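Re: [help] complex structure
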Amino acid sequence: MMNALGDPQSLLVLGGSSEIGLATARRLVGSRVEVVHLAGRPSPALDAAAAELRALGAQVHVHDFDARAVDTHETVLGKIFAEGDIDVALLAFGVLGDQERDEREPLAAAAVAQVNYLGAVTSGLLCAQALRRQGHGALVVLSSVAGERARRSNFIYGSTKAGLDAFAQGLGDSLHGSGARVMVVRPGFVRTRMTEGLPEAPLATTAEAVAEAVVGGLRRGSETVWVPGALRFVMSGLRHLPRAVFRRLPV
Amino acid sequence: MEGRLTGWGRTAPTTARICAPTTAAEARDAVRAAGERGTLARGLGRSYGDAAQNAGGTVLDMTALARVLALDLEQGLVTCEAGVSLDRLMRLLLPFGWFVPVTPGTRYVTVGGAVGADIHGKNHHVSGSFGRHVTRMRLLTAGGEEVEVAPGEELFDATTGGMGLTGVILDATIRLLPVATSLMSVDTERAADLDDLMQRLEATDHRYRYSVAWIDLVARGAATGRAVLTRGDHATLDALTPRQRLDPLAFRPRSLPPAPRGIPGGLLRTATVGAFNELWYRRAPRDRRGQLQRIGAFFHPLDGVPEWNRVYGPGGFLQYQFVVPYGREAALRSIVEQLSRHGCPSFLAVLKRFGEGGPGWLSFPMPGWTLALDLPASVPGLGPLLDRLDEQVLAAGGRVYLAKDSRMRPQTLAAMYPGLADFRALRERIDPRGVFTSDLARRLAL
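Output below.
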């Protein structure tokens, strides 16, 4: 159960090897979380994440989960929720793709959409149903500022996050009054394995900073969290720029 | 009906299906129909944390099961259904010269809740907790059967203080206290600091039936723990003025309009609360004897402002109440200092000396000092601070009160309550399917 100060006791990370997911889990294990479910594709990074959280004293369960295999989501998530209440489910999986290649190879672009959007739709809906049955719990969805307004330089990734963001907001509204809720997290450029070698955007942040913002948002009961917070105002300006100007921006 | 429920502190809301049985038969049907997320009785929702919530399951709103079944005015015994409030009992019984044996800081608790939390009042050092005055109860078990339980029986002792997890209390018989008037004769004095306060309480508490000290935790330095003691007893007839003697048992509690909705958070900061506490300390008489006060003013000052919990804003608040045994005054002093140093904007905290503990397995009171304070949930660093205090309370051989808790660690709680192992075993035996459960029970693995 989430306590009065917004500290959960159990956590599910979908995309269990995600750096933001792990950073968040590390912080939550430091307060009240005792049970962590890491769901992801088997990999050394996933095993390392599990080992690290175990070393911090958490009881860690690892589950084979592939965001692209949408027809398996019901079975995998059903099993996880059957083991006990989940106070926070963190939807942390996602791929960046390679804009130039993806424009040339539409099937590669579809793969990005499959993970970032389709995989999130099935698993997000399943988590929401389970949280509704529990009568409590938070689904944290890692969106991105890239979805706030699609840019020439990464509109494939951006459009999948735009879809995800809209989906998560609607899902949150559908859960209103159910005891469960959705928190949308919109980080800017995060320095992780996923963005390694890419030119940094202004207001770049780290996985640790995103994790801190997630924990803070859970405490406050926020519906939307921007990381860093200043992006909220930057994006609200960018959103209203005329297309002709926006297109010419060096971002 | 689906409903969002919180405790009095308005933190950690969860949703449950709420049904309000009006008869024992309806309560039985509701318990039998409970799904896999179980069911739980809820009274007037005055527990601060998640004790009367059951996320995803059923919550029985017991306030409609509220008939007074029998009244013995010779012996001073009342039998009533669990949803009857202490307010109702006072209004009913005072005109006959009887008073409830134990009242907490609010009249708006039900008899079922009073037993479930084994509540205490200002008279704990004389009269013990509520469970001591219950002569029998009827309990609805997980299988939907009604059983009679009496003091000394396992199920009775597990139920007093059992936070509703052993079954649904249907009705109870309570032994009352005879009073000659409905007024209180009160002595008020100020204590300059914590040591002065503890000395005064220790030296003269036994002379009073009711005793409590309001203590200022915002004041720092030499004034840390300065306090106002209010102690007294029910006034005798000859203490009343001739006019009051015309209707010595009058009980017409008045209240202001409720606190409005939508009060923003953050109004209660150290500065505002400090100013309030200062004012309140200054206006208390230095030493005043035999002042006549109404029952409401003496026992339930906060009941004068309905829905006062809204003043903490949407972020809500929590109450921290612990007890440390006599002889561990150093731990108490150290905790008071830490709270004061942290800059907690706590309205008047309450310090009291407990008498002997009761037989309830999870009952809170034990001989020692108990301190209770309200804190906005938004105080920075509150979680780690209270976790540290938990450890110190535990190390001193004390414990934290379940009816107030909304944040403890399950391991700390288990170490504080030696009766918990038996409690778990009993529940496993009489309720193997876990029909009775609550958010509190899930959070603390009760």
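The radius of gyration of chain A is 17 Å.
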